[in-house]
Design brief:
about 400 residues; Oxidized Rhodanese, domain 1; 13 helices; about 35% helix; binds zinc ion; TRHO_N
């Protein structure tokens, strides 16, 4: 029985994919798990049957568009998009937000290969999203045999990405220069360590992969990004070039616009983010990637490998390891790196306490604290060791 419960809890341990907080968004509900052990069991059975019978291939596809939408239009689009994608077996996580905040759409999907063109033309047909030209879709480097999302969620939010500075859609009209991956590559290769490159992602994303010479923001979520960026740029002349990148581009569209409004005049961002760059280097012969390691993704893949470099270390034994996963004690859910040997030894948990909890030996009584769960003191030390090596 214990074994069954454990399997169920592993299968259903929530991945970062289902944690909107990683982009700085507040979850619609508390993210503290509420499932009982009994429900975990029944859920795991249906999940495993579904994946075994699914032999289709899927392409990870993403895009975003920051555009003004009224509350009514957001609700209209929510239902229109959900029913269309449901019909053609697309799964994913789609956020819609009205113009009073950072409005528009942020869309990540796993699309059956047979439906790729249908999905693209469906979104290209929505007038608001093509106001400034056709949608630039970003596709995963590799197709997957199982979808990288477990279901379809079309969710309305106050902001596509949350910040502490209260931005509205109209504040983001001035946009940075969008550099295609090829142009980005040339400019960075040319400038080397003379380029000022800001990695706009969270600390754990940087740790497993980043561009050479990039500055780490060292934030838990994008929500803290503007303040940290302000302090990093305090001494920088307003006419100096600033390069910035993130996973797919949306964080830079917001942060870059914020910098332009503050008077910085030469802000450049990587169009399509690391995802687009990964595609560019994987297809280009004789191109040495300037990004090293893994590109963390907010879906079931947990990341795409861009180069074979392993930049981070196992949380427990410090062996080279860049696979991020969540503690299998869903009441803890720490996001951390763990090697195969330590995963086996610890039953995919982060600590003896969590291991004993899933074994039913002790009762878990701690309050869930998101920031502690992704970066406890111990992990800070592990990061410091990794940087020092
Ligand atoms: Zn280890
Ligand atoms: Zn744990």
């Amino acid at each position: 029985m214990n074994g069954l419960i454990k399997t169920a809890s592993l299968l259903f341990s929530r991945s970062p994919l289902w944690q909107p907080t990683l982009l700085g968004l507040k979850p619609a509900k508390s993210i503290r798990p509420v499932w009982s052990r009994t429900t975990q069991l029944s859920f795991s059975c249906s999940f495993s049957t579904q994946t075994q019978s699914n032999i289709a291939r899927f392409r990870p596809v993403a895009f975003y568009s920051i555009v003004p939408l009224s509350q009514d239009r957001v609700r209209e689009l929510q239902s229109e998009i959900h029913s269309r994608l449901k019909q053609i077996d697309v799964v994913g996580r789609i956020y819609l937000a009205p113009e009073q905040g950072i409005g528009g759409i942020n869309c990540q999907m796993a699309v059956p290969l047979s439906q790729l063109e249908t999905v693209k033309s469906f979104f290209q047909g929505i007038r608001e999203f093509t106001q400034t030209g056709p949608i630039a879709f970003t596709e995963g480097i590799q197709d997957t045999t199982t979808p990288s999302f477990r279901n379809l969620r079309v969710v309305t939010k106050r902001n596509l990405v949350a910040t502490k500075v209260g931005l509205q859609t109209k504040d983001l009209e001035m946009q940075p220069d969008y550099l295609d991956p090829a142009v980005w590559h040339e400019q960075l290769a040319d400038k080397g360590n003379q380029a000022f490159v800001l990695d706009m992602r969270n600390h754990y994303e940087y740790d497993i992969g980043h561009f050479e010479h990039a500055v780490k923001m060292d934030v838990d979520t994008f929500r803290d990004g503007m303040e940290v960026m302000d302090s990093l740029l305090k001494e920088k002349p307003k006419n100096e070039e600033i390069y910035m990148y993130c996973t797919g581009g949306i964080r830079c569209s917001v942060a870059g616009s914020y910098l332009l409004k503050k008077g910085y005049s030469k802000v450049k961002m990587l169009k399509g983010g690391v995802s687009a760059y990964g595609n560019y280097v994987s297809k280009g012969k004789n191109k040495t990637s300037l990004f090293r390691g893994m590109n963390f993704t907010f879906d079931g893949r947990r990341g795409e490998r861009i180069t074979d470099d392993v930049l981070s270390h196992c949380f427990h034994c410090n062996a080279p390891c860049d696979r991020l996963s969540n503690c299998s004690n869903t009441l803890c859910h720490l996001l951390f790196t763990q090697c195969d040997a330590c995963q086996a030894k610890m039953d995919k948990t982060c600590s003896t306490k969590c291991k004993e909890t899933i074994e039913g030996k002790i009762e878990w009584t701690d309050e869930y604290n998101y920031h502690n769960q992704i970066r406890p003191t111990a992990q800070k030390k592990a990061v410091a060791v990794a940087v020092a090596v």
